[in-house]
Design a protein that fits this description.
Distance between the termini: 61 Å
Largest sheet: 8 strands, mixed
Radius of gyration: 22 Å
Shape: elongated
Oligomer: single chain
Number of helices: 10
Helix content: 40-55%
Structural class: alpha/beta
């Protein structure tokens, strides 16, 4: 079977394993990009989610035996159970050489290669914040994929992603732990820091609504500054960037009156700014 493309005039077809936040988001995104999408989840999903799949033209499978012909099988499962699920899928008779794609930023692919000899494998990590199963996502959303694959799967993965609005970054080898930690800083930690910002602004006397507006506005402009400058350190603002040590001390003490952990976070981040931006 030629796994690099569907027959001429047909849509590419993909089976997604796992209907959590990432699997659900990617199913919607691939469908919006014109692919035929099937999705299977080991446990039953909520009726509202099933109806949403139906409206989007995504085929929800009740068992793997129902799967139709596909060119790609993409696993959006927790790292701890990936090997078990992949081995289960590998045993299905309808498979004809399709590459297995694993959506993980930290999964070690070598044990999978040993467990699935002869199967084309790739780690295809979507660097995208899938924050909720209900989030709206479409072709206008550009997803960056970091791809680590064997030579047999590289062309197939490249063809798949070129058929979408995504961007691919192919690497031969990468420190997966550092890579994934870097992604966490850019997504999960940013969201957490904005929550802390909202908390402090609300504690200062602002309304919840005004706190969200101010923190989101600051974050939005800061991201634009980072993109324009081509990096983060050069656009850092705040008391540490200006060398106002006493201001930092006063603010740490004020925060500690309500939340000592948040005060420690604020102090550590200012220390990090000092190290990155020595005056």
């Amino acid at each position: 079977m030629d796994c690099t493309a569907s027959r001429e005039g047909e849509q590419m077809r993909i089976l997604i394993i796992g209907a959590g936040r990432t699997g659900t988001g990617l199913a919607r995104w691939f469908r919006a990009n014109g692919l035929e999408v099937q999705i299977w989840n080991r446990s039953a999903i909520e009726e509202a989610q099933a109806q949403e799949f139906s409206r989007a033209g995504i085929v929800l499978l009740s068992s793997l035996e129902e799967a139709g012909a596909v060119e790609f099988v993409m696993f959006c499962t927790a790292d701890a159970g990936t090997l078990v699920v992949a081995s289960e899928v590998e045993s299905k008779a309808w498979l004809e050489g399709q590459p297995f794609l694993f959506c993980s930023g930290s999964l070690d692919i070598e044990p999978l290669r040993r467990a699935l000899p002869g199967r084309g494998l790739a780690r295809v990590h979507p660097a995208f914040p899938f924050c909720d199963k209900a989030m709206r996502i479409g072709r206008e959303d550009v997803i960056n994929f970091l791809v680590e694959s064997d030579s047999e799967s590289r062309e197939s993965v490249q063809r798949l992603l070129e058929a979408t609005s995504g961007r691919s970054f192919f690497v031969d080898r990468i420190d997966k732990d550092l890579y994934h930690a870097g992604c966490v800083f850019s997504a999960g930690f940013v969201a957490s820091l904005l929550g802390m910002s909202r908390q402090l602004l609300t504690n200062s006397g602002l309304t919840e609504e005004d706190s969200i507006t101010i923190s989101a506005g600051l974050a939005s402009r800061t991201l634009k500054n980072v993109q324009c400058a081509g990096g983060g350190e050069s656009v850092v603002t705040g008391p540490s960037a200006r060398g106002e040590t006493q201001t930092v001390v006063n603010e740490v003490l004020a925060i500690a009156r309500n939340d000592r952990l948040l005060a420690s976070v604020y102090e550590l981040l200012n220390e990090a700014i000092d190290r990155k931006n020595p005056r």
